[in-house]
Structures are given as C-alpha cells and as structure tokens.
Amino acid sequence: MELQMSNADKNLPAIGEESQVGFDEQLQELIRRGLDFDTWTSIISKIEKTYPDNIEKICSVYDSFLSEYPLCHGYWRKYAAHKAHLCTVDKVGEIFERAVQSATYCVGNFYALKSSCSFCWNNFLLFKRAMSFVGKDYLCYPLWDKYIEFESSQQQWIFLAKIYVQTLKFPTKRLCRYYDKYTSLCFEYFTVNILF
Fold first, then answer.
1. What is the domain count for the chain?
2. Among 18, 71, 86, 159, which one is least packed by beta carbons within 10 Å?
3. What is the pLDDT of residue 13?
4. pTM
5. Is residue 99 within 8 Å of 76, Cβ to Cβ?
C-alpha cells in the first residue's frame, strides 16, 4: 500500500513498509525532510488502515502531526477515539489535556473533544475550565449548551440560573435563546417554589 503523495513528495520513503529501517526512524526521516499538510493526512490515513490495532504507531504519527498542527481539532478527536478504542479512559483524558494545553483558546478543540470524550464532560470543573478559556467566543454555544445540559441533569436550578446569567454576559450566537431559557427558568422556579 503506497501513499498518495504530490509529485514533490514521490521520493519520500514509504513509511510503514517492510524495510531495514524501523518505523520510528522512517517517521523521523520524513519529519526532517518536511511534510506538508496533505502528506501528513495521507500518512495518518495509511497508518490507520495498515496498523488499526497498533497504538504505538498510531500514537507516533498523531503525536508528530499534532505537534505541527495543534489547531486541527478533528485530528485530536480522531486520536482520542483511537485511545478510547485501544487504551483506557485515563489515556483518553490525557489526549484531552494535551489538546487543551496545545491550543487553550481554541473552541474547536474543546468542542471536538466534547464530542469524542463525553465521559470527560461529566465533571463540573472541566466545564468551568473550558468556559474560562473560550466562553466569550461568539461560536462557543455548543459548549454552553453542553454545560447547561450537564447542570440540568444535576437538577441544580440555582447553578443553572447562574450559568444562564453567565451566557448573557457575552454576545454569543445563541444569546436570545439563552435569554428566553433564563426567563422561562426563573418564571418556572418562582411559580413552583415561591408562590405555592
């Protein structure tokens, strides 16, 4: 199986092929020569197909790629999915931490990891952390929605109201929706707990 590479990359060694040189050495040689984004994605695809159960090789490729392209949140998600499939929950959490550390203010990283690491989001402190970094972003509404969903599931109505107040401080895409939900929650809470 050969990589589909551009003409300029045809002379790169075929990573993962049987040879005298080990996998890590082949990967390091490619990195030293310099890879463009398309070549990286081709290598990742090839390794995933050739070695679907070899976590060491998958980790080597993803670690190298994500050190060059830390804002590629879809690849952080794919990496976390491989860890979830082949490793323990703790290892998936480590990927989450690395993604957040590498691109702390990237809403996409938080959202992509939210999608693949739902277990990580069952923790109030993680929501607080995520919102402290990206809560003011106009397009962070998927994270606010997940945070609201979490507090709703905990049935902590006072905390939920506080979260809605926080959402109203920033001009996010769903500002009007959050206002409507907040007023509805307040009306419902007053009606049930105060008047009756």
1. 1
2. 18
3. 45
4. 0.60
5. yes
